[in-house]
Specification:
Keywords: Amino-acid biosynthesis, Aromatic amino acid biosynthesis, Lyase, Tryptophan biosynthesis. Tetramer of two alpha and two beta chains. It catalyses: (1S,2R)-1-C-(indol-3-yl)glycerol 3-phosphate + L-serine = D-glyceraldehyde 3-phosphate + L-tryptophan + H2O. One of its GO terms (molecular function) is tryptophan synthase activity. The protein is of the alpha/beta class. It has one domain: TIM Barrel, CATH 3.20.20. Helices cover about 40% and strands about 15% of the residues. Strands 5-4-3-2-1-9-8-7-6 form a 9-stranded parallel beta sheet. Helix 10 links the parallel strand 8 and strand 9. The two termini are about 25 Å apart. The structure holds indole-3-glycerol phosphate.
Length: about 260
Amino acid sequence: MNRFEKSFSALKQNNKKAFIPYIMAGDGGLENLVERLTALEKFGATAIEVGVPFSDPVADGPTIQAAGLRALENGTTLRGIVKEIEKARRVVSIPIILMTYLNPIYSYGIPEFVRDIQIAGVDGCIIPDLPMEEEEIITPALESAEVELIRLVTLTTPLERIKTISSKGRGFLYTVTVKGITGVRNEYDSELSQFLTSVKEVSAIPVMAGFGISNKEQIEDITKYCDGVIVGSKIVDLFEQGRLSEMEDLMSVVKQESKVL
Ligand SMILES: O=P(O)(O)OC[C@@H](O)[C@@H](O)c1c[nH]c2ccccc12
């Protein structure tokens, strides 16, 4: 079993849902990365998504973009991030997912990138601008390194395609819950619960919902229809403002047993 399978099967046995926080590596200085990963594990994170700052992000909303700019300004690089993750791996045992666009991977070199993240103890990668039809440029290398590609589906992806996509991985399926970019939102598409229910029905792997989720009520509601949530912009804000007790409180929702499976 890989780290994802271990984490998700433990949650399932205890009737619990997953919480995956996203952080922007290098925001506030790369030297805080190990500390932040450690804090998130202590607060009960199931896994952590670590964002790599990039000058031309496609799906990032204003909060994540601003965090990315701050990180780039202080000289954060993909190589530096991978080194810090390697240090963190000695103390953090939950899955670590690296979120990066294709361009930084290309300039690193695909084989070198995959080798280094494997050594560092990275469990999965999210590459938002890599479509399923093109993924073979990196999946053979990732597979032999036992690093999972975490694939994204959205409200507009046909169910047949979702079924195909979910049959490929041994991580989880990232279901984007909005038609748009990342960022805190107050309202959801009226079809979201029905959509998540259908995705759950066809998916061979755990279904995580992300984009626009920022408070306990949303988390309680959305986790009725899927295996857990990914929270980005809100976590980035709370770290930036040093509001760690609020973060712990937000993450505590998934510590309770959930009634609906
Ligand atoms: O910030 P939000 O709305 O909570 O959404 C999560 C998101 O930030 C994180 O998963 C993410 C950041 N950038 C991305 C690009 C593509 C897919 C996912 C992401």
